[in-house]
Specification:
Shape of chain A: elongated
Strand content of chain A: 5-15%
Shape of chain B: globular
Order of helices and strands of chain A: HHHHEHEEHEE
Number of helices of chain B: 10
Radius of gyration of chain B: 16 Å
Strand order of the largest sheet of chain B: 2-1-3-4-5-6
Helix content of chain A: 55-70%
Distance between the termini of chain A: 60 Å
Largest sheet of chain A: 5 strands, mixed
Number of strands of chain A: 5
Distance between the termini of chain B: 37 Å
Strand content of chain B: 5-15%
Radius of gyration of chain A: 31 Å
Structural class of chain A: alpha+beta
Oligomer: heterodimer
Chain lengths: 264, 212
């Protein structure tokens, strides 16, 4: 096996060598024609021929290198896009499927809750996979936020008090904002211990602000365990990626407030 | 100490008994009614400090009660209590003269605080009412603007935003580094503007939206 591979590499090197020698030869020949024949205006054919020889020679020498360079660049860009998509999918799966699975485990004794969780998750996942992308459906922000609040109420059995000021059509950034709000709500519903969570969002001329607040047990921001991916990755990363910002304030014993700001 | 004298008006008996239990001994309950006519009569007789009343009732709702009682009994204060009403109903009871609006999901201690606050002559905003006011005053307004009545100051907006986020007066005072008294003054000023503004679109605005 190793010998075959060696031979193939040797063959490749030989081909490259022949190509370079041929290219250099063509360039040299072309240049020589210019010096020896000094083509005149009357008989341009020798000049054209020489120029063509030089061109073909240059392509032979530099072509493969140039081709490899551009190929590498576009491969790198594709890789970057792919990893961004992967992160986006991971964030979505974390927000939806993983949360539901966690809930199903916790409610394992309750057949009805489990099947309703499974059903609503299936619907959500189907919509995400096959439905119209959220950013393309002509929907208002208020409707979307309200729907998310309803979902969290259904899923976690906490009251979500939503206060909406202003409204606007939803674009890709605002979908990111709503997803982050959803994550903040989920965190509040699951970890704060509070029986209700408040959501306040305000649409202004230049930005949209969302506050998600609970009066639960709060936590020490310095000591968030690494496995609590929700806050660190999902909210911060997503807001940052779309040009917004997230601020999390929490005081043990008093509660937590997540502030999300997305420029318009 | 018996606290302010409170009268309850609601056509849902479950709500009445729930509110009664939540208020407990902190106030002196002087009566309750479940119909508009009876409420008007009894409130006139007993002159409570605070009337806690449902927004939506057959026979004109809380608004009819306020409008009938206020001219003859200016010292009686009203606090609207509601489950999920159209914005136009809520704005109507406020403009009729209620000192505040809270939802029936309010916790017991918060309800007591709201009643005491109204008894002291201050305004009470539920988060939803605060959001509603912000929204209504942000809408375009064409026509003569009286800055005293038709616009909110920066500080008033700040206070409203905190109320909409679910903060109590005490928490707002701490956050904005001002006294509770100042927060109360801002809230009362906003309530006054809400009651007196000539923003004509306010009622149309309200009918377009629901305070869910």
């Amino acid at each position: 096996m190793a010998k075959v591979a060696d031979r193939r590499i040797l063959a490749g090197m030989a081909a490259a060598l022949v190509q370079v020698v041929l290219g250099v030869g063509l360039v040299a020949a072309g240049v020589a024609v210019f010096f020896i024949a000094t083509p005149s205006v009357a008989s341009p054919s020798a000049g054209i021929l020489a120029t063509a020889a030089i061109a073909v020679g240059l392509v032979n020498v530099f072509g493969p290198w140039w081709w490899r360079l551009t190929h590498d660049l576009s491969a790198e860009r594709q890789e970057r896009i792919r990893s961004q998509e992967r992160a986006e999918v991971a964030a979505h799966i974390h927000d939806s499927v993983l949360q539901t699975l966690a809930l199903i485990q916790r409610n394992a004794g309750d057949a009805r809750t489990v099947s309703s969780l499974a059903r609503s998750q299936e619907r959500e996942l189907r919509n995400w996979l096959y439905g119209t992308p959220e950013s393309e459906s002509a929907e208002s922000l208020a409707t979307l936020v309200q729907r998310v609040s309803d979902e969290i109420e259904d899923l976690h059995g906490v009251a979500v008090e939503t206060v909406e000021v202003g409204d606007c059509p939803v674009d890709e950034r605002l979908v990111a904002l709503v997803s982050s709000s959803r994550e903040a709500l989920t965190n509040a519903a699951r970890h704060s211990g509070a029986s209700s969570v408040s959501v306040f969002f305000e649409v202004e001329a230049d930005q949209v602000t969302v506050f998600v607040r609970d009066r639960g047990k709060g936590f020490d921001l310095e000591q968030v365990p690494a496995d609590r991916r929700g806050i660190a990755d999902s909210i911060m990363w997503r807001m940052d990626r779309h040009g917004g910002k997230a601020v999390i304030r929490s005081t043990p014993g008093e509660g937590t407030e997540v502030e999300l700001v997305m420029p318009r | 100490m018996s606290g302010p004298r409170v009268f309850l008006v609601d056509d849902h008996h479950l709500v009445l008994s729930g509110v009664r239990a939540e208020l407990g001994d902190t106030v002196e309950l002087v009566g309750e009614a479940s119909e508009v006519e009876a409420a008007i009569e009894m409130i006139g007789e007993r002159e409570p400090d605070v009337v806690l009343l449902d927004v939506h009732m057959p026979g004109g709702g809380g608004r009819a009660v306020i409008e009938a009682v206020m001219p003859n009994h200016p010292n009686v204060k009203f606090l609207a209590l509601s489950v999920s009403d159209a914005a136009e109903d809520v704005i109507a009871v406020i403009r009729a003269g209620a000192r505040g609006y809270v939802t029936k999901t309010i916790s017991g201690p918060e309800l007591v605080e709201a009643v005491l606050r109204v008894a002291d002559g201050d305004a009470v905003f539920s988060p939803r009412l605060a959001g509603f006011v912000l929204d209504a005053f942000a809408a375009d307004y064409r026509g003569p603007v009286d800055p005293e009545l038709d616009q909110l100051t920066v500080r008033e907006k700040e206070v409203l935003r905190h109320l909409a986020r679910g903060y109590s007066y005490k928490e707002i005072a701490r956050q904005l580094a001002i006294s509770i008294k100042t927060v109360e003054t801002h809230a009362s000023a906003v309530l006054r503007k809400l009651q007196l503004t000539n923003r004509h679109q306010l009622s149309r605005w309200a009918s377009d939206r629901r305070l869910v």
